[in-house]
Every structure is written in structure tokens, then in C-alpha cells.
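Worked problem 6 (solution included).
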Amino acid sequence: MIEMILACVGLGIVAGILAGMLGIGGGVVIVPALVIILNHQGYPADYVVISAVATSLCTIIFTSISAARAQIKRKAVDWDIFKRWALLVVIGSFLSGFIAGQLPPIVLETGIAVFLFIVSIIMLSKWTPNPSRSMPGKAGTSVLGLFSGMLSGLAGIGGGNVMVPLMVFFNVPMQRAVATSSTLGLPLALVGTIGYLISGWQLSITDWSLGYVYLPAAALIAVFTVIMAPVGVALSHYIPAPTLKRCFGALLMLVALRMLYNAL
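Solution. The predicted structure is:
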């Protein structure tokens, strides 16, 4: 138990800084790390991956509050994109809890790893969007919002790994994309967590689980991500956008390879 506490504290510190700096909610680090921690704790094998995803989303509720407040104070959020995406992101995130419950663990983990790997290659490349490209119309925006919410909920990543690359693709500046993603992460994580609580409500995985959420890990990680997220936000406004983009891609690549190795 002491090892788990120390691991979750360290994880919360790292995830909080990354959440604020990259707008990723911290889930890209929390999910694979929790898979390792829960396996080490002897957590029921059939529920390790989905519980890691659900617990990650739960911590992102609190991380997003902290990061979003810091970004709003800096007036960095694109409120037009927020208004167009918020409802659809929430709907997609809520549905993800029920979809994930029907997927075999290896399918869920491998799918998350492959997706993160693809995004990492895009972010590490010298690719730049067509300068004439802008955010799509109402129908296109609806599809992107629903897709972002559902995929983010399935991966337990708070949306940044999906929404930031999408916004950059449509020529939204990196710092603005990070800020908007941080703000959208709150409703996404809140409703996604509710979906995982409802879909796993009838299960008694452990004495300390509520639905698919493992409460001790959620509480420990959340405390330290909230403390450290503003530090990450401050760093994001001092690091050049290309460097921020490469850091984002490198992190995703490492996490994707680790998850793929673990799944296969």
C-alpha cells in the first residue's frame, strides 16, 4: 500500500505539470501508469485497463478545473470553439463508458496505444497545416466534437490528445489549442466519469471501487495534479510552440510503445 501511495503521488505531480503545459488532462500518463500500478497491486485482471481509464477520467475533473482557471485568467481560451464543441464532446464522452464496458481489455488497450502512436508521429513530424484551412462548418464541427469526446472517453485521456492535434490541423495556434483543450477537458471528464460509474455500478471489483473508478488512486492523483497544473500552464506560455509540439509528440510516442508492449 505504501508503494501504491508513493507511486500515485509521483504520478500526480508529473501528470499535473504535463496537463497544464500540454492541455492533455494528464491521462496520457495516468492511464498506462495506473495499468502498471493496479497490476502490481493484484487488482482483478479483467478490470485493470477499464478501471485505469475510468480512474484517470475522474482525476482529470479536478486537474481540468485547475488548468482551465489558469488558462482563463491568461485569456488564452478560444470560446468560439468551446461553445461549438462542448455539448458534443460531453455526449461522446458519456457514451464511451458503456462502449468500453463491452470491449475485451486487450482490444481497448491496443486501440488506445495505436491511436496515440499515430498522433505522436504527426506531432513529431515537420508537417504543417495548409495555411488556408480553417475550422469546418456546423456539420463538420459536430462530427469532430462527437469523435473527440468518444475517443477521449474510451482512452481516459481528457481530450487533449485528440482535440489539440485537431485544432492545430485547422490552424489554431498551439498555445490557444492547449488552453481550449484544457477548458473542454472539464465537462468531458465529468460526464465521462459519470458514464463509467453508471456502467460499472452493479460490479463489486474491490472494496474501494465505485463503478469502474478506483477511489484511493483517484484521490491521491487528483490532489497533486491540481497543485501542479498551474505550474504547467505557466511553462506553456514560456516554451516556444514548435518545442511544445515536439515535447507533446515525444511523450505520446513513449506512452504508446509502452502500452502496446504491455497489451501484446
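Discussion: The CA atoms of residues 135 and 162 lie 15 Å apart.
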